[in-house]
């Protein structure tokens, strides 16, 4: 193999490594999207559930619980994360929690009573809190030294 072909192969490997870092970071950044959607849900939900043609009748107190329970779940999730992250690792924690977040969204989307909506929102907050730390940690671990500190 000539010197120029070795450099070409090495350059291809660097581009592939950079591409994998970007793809992995974007995938892990979806955790922050989930957090934003969960927070923004409260405004849309409150507007729709208080309209005259809402199919589900909830009290003001129930609406308040549904909108705010995600924050309670986040706090519990952060505490749980500090124990499970060292035991299982960042990627495994994210892999375990991803289907549970999807389950929380299904409960919110298909929920037809107060308790199902409350449980779905609690799951969203809980597992989003669990995965926030590990996703940030893993992005820091995989980033090349020349990409850190932007």
Q: Could you explain the architecture of this structure?
A:
This protein is an all-alpha fold. It has one domain. 84% of the residues lie in helices and 0% in strands. The protein is built from four helices and no strands. Helix 2 packs parallel to helix 4 and helix 3 runs antiparallel to helix 4. It is elongated. The two termini are 37 Å apart. GO terms for molecular function: transmembrane transporter activity. It holds the Pfam family Sugar_tr. It is found in: Membrane. One of its GO terms (cellular component) is membrane. This is Solute carrier family 2, facilitated glucose transporter member 6.
Please describe the topology of this protein.
Elements: H1 3-49, H2 60-88, H3 90-110, H4 114-142
Helix pairs in contact: 1-2, 1-4, 2-3, 2-4, 3-4
Q: Could you tell me the number of beta strands?
A: 0
Question: Which spans have pLDDT < 50 for at least 5 consecutive residues?
Answer: 3-9
Number of helices: 4
End-to-end Cα distance? 37 Å
Helix and strand succession? HHHH
How does the overall form come out from the CA principal axes? elongated
Mean pLDDT: 83
Kindly provide the radius of gyration, computed on alpha-carbon positions and rounded to a whole number of angstroms. 21 Å
Number of domains in the coordinates?
Answer: 1
Structural class: mainly alpha
Strand content: under 5%
Main sheet overview: none
Helix content: over 70%
């Amino acid at each position: 193999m000539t010197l120029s072909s070795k450099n070409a192969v090495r350059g291809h490997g660097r581009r592939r490594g950079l591409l994998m870092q970007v793809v992995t970071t974007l995938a892990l950044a979806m955790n922050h999207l989930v957090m934003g959607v969960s927070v923004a849900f409260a405004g849309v939900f409150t507007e729709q559930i208080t309209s005259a043609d809402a199919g589900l009748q909830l009290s003001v107190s129930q609406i308040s619980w549904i909108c705010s329970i995600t924050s309670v779940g986040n706090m519990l999730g952060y505490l749980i994360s500090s124990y499970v992250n060292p035991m299982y690792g960042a990627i495994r924690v994210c892999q375990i929690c991803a289907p549970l977040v999807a389950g929380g969204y299904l409960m919110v989307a298909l929920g037809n009573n107060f308790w199902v909506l409350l449980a779905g929102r609690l799951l969203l907050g809980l597992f989003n809190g669990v995965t926030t730390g590990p996703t940030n940690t893993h992005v820091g671990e995989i980033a090349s030294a020349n990409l850190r500190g932007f």
